[in-house]
User: Fold this.
Amino acid sequence: MYNRLAFIVMGVLFLLMGILYAVVAIMANSAPVPQIYIIFAMAVMSFCLSYLFPQSNQKDERMKFIRQKGMFISFFAFLIYSQVFTGLIQFDVVHLSAMAAINMLTALMISTVFISWVVLARIY
Assistant:
């Protein structure tokens, strides 16, 4: 129970820090710093790990299958994300710096891996 609570506390802290950065960016009337995406992804990761903690302690075939299938799904999600970002940048739909694009892709991957693990844990 202690480690599950630690993940929840970390998730709340990451969420509050991300909200603070977003509010500052809104008040400054500018785009948020690219690291904000990673901060929100870390909040998602912490909340997902708090949900998965009791199950992830078990080193059985079920959790191994969930991890393996989650990484498989995330691989294809990354291919889709990269194609979408390439198309949006190539056709000048959005203007992103390289740092912003990399941070968005990283945040999407972190979120996809852990959310897929939670969904698969609920299914299996």
Observations:
- The mean pLDDT is 93.
- The chain has one domain: 2-123.
- Helices lie at 2-27, 35-56, 61-90, 98-123.
- The radius of gyration is 17 Å.
